[in-house]
Design brief:
The protein is mainly alpha-helical. The protein is about 80% helix and about 0% strand. The chain has one domain.
């Protein structure tokens, strides 16, 4: 078993870049475990900005001016967000009924 672990160590961790990457991943995991609730909105914002920038880049490469491509990607994101919110919101409110929940005074 020791020989297997030694070969694995020499194969994957003999380069210093791999060791640095492993250390960075461990530090990132510890930071996420400690500050996850605080960093979650920041990470979501970074991911959304990355996705919206990709849409804006595609529009710019198709000849749309930069300001308009950013505005269109923002409107596309907001439209998708409100569409999902509407669909899931309507599905959640559907069992309530036509005029809302009944109260004790309705009897």
């Amino acid at each position: 078993m020791r020989e297997v672990l030694t070969r694995w160590y020499q194969r994957y961790l003999s380069e210093e870049e791999a060791v640095i990457l492993l250390m960075l991943l461990v530090v990132a995991l510890v930071v996420m475990l400690m500050f996850g609730e605080i960093l979650a909105p920041v990470l979501v914002a970074v991911i959304l900005a990355y996705l919206m920038q990709g849409v804006a880049n595609v529009l710019r490469h198709r000849g749309v001016p930069a300001e308009l491509s950013v505005a269109l990607s923002t409107l596309l994101f907001l439209g998708g967000f409100f569409a999902v919110l509407f669909v899931f919101g309507a599905a959640r409110l559907a069992p309530v009924g036509r005029f809302g929940p009944r109260s004790a005074r309705d009897d």
